[in-house]
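User: Protein folding is very new to me. Would you mind checking the protein record under this note? It all follows right here:
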Amino acid sequence: MTTVVREHHPFSAAELIRAWVTGWAPAREVPPPVEVAGGFRLRVGLPGHRVRYVLFDIDRVAELARTRTAPGTWIKVLAPVERVRAELTSAWTVGVPEYAMSGPLRRATASAPSGYTIEVESMDEVVLVRVRATDGAVAAQGRIAVTGETAVADRIGTDAAHRRRGLGSVVMTTLGDAAAARGARTGVLVASADGLALYSTLGWTRHGVLTAAWIPEPESESASVPAQPRPAR
């Protein structure tokens, strides 16, 4: 089993994955994860993304790849791309590397740059943050799901027309403040290569590579999903 660096919280690989899927589910409004050997199963229920297995044990990948062959099935595992690809059949498409990260959550007030306003909305355990431009358009946004002492940040993004203005930091600081106010101490997220630098600057620690693989659905079953979709974090 992979073991991650111990910082902010004594995470093992299994604990890190458990924390992430427990918060990812409410953040994405899908049913709670179900524990399976080596990880968890989530019923996502979207075109091209019907069910997702999130694993901390690479040794489970080969069996799942052979036995879970329905189109729209995804596997996400805490292991490098090359290692994961070696366990898969030719039916699977492999995504780009992503990165499991954790960071401390603190009470802090973010100030939006001139011309922008911060909007916070709470929905049960999920807090949504939007940064709006003067015309009302959403310039940056994100959400965080609080599940006890941990919270999962998800769907963090800045519109291309508003990048390089510090809006990503504004969103993350506001999300962290909201989660800390609810008692969370440690944040968990999965970062793209583009997001890695931002989160590292904010004090988050990279723990390992997460690799996604999926079996595409035929276009007739999933017309809105590209033949090679970008993995959904």
Remarks:
- Residues 1-9, 222-232 have pLDDT under 50 and may be disordered.
- The domain at 106-184 is CATH 3.40.630.30 (Aminopeptidase).
- The longest strand covers residues 138-147.
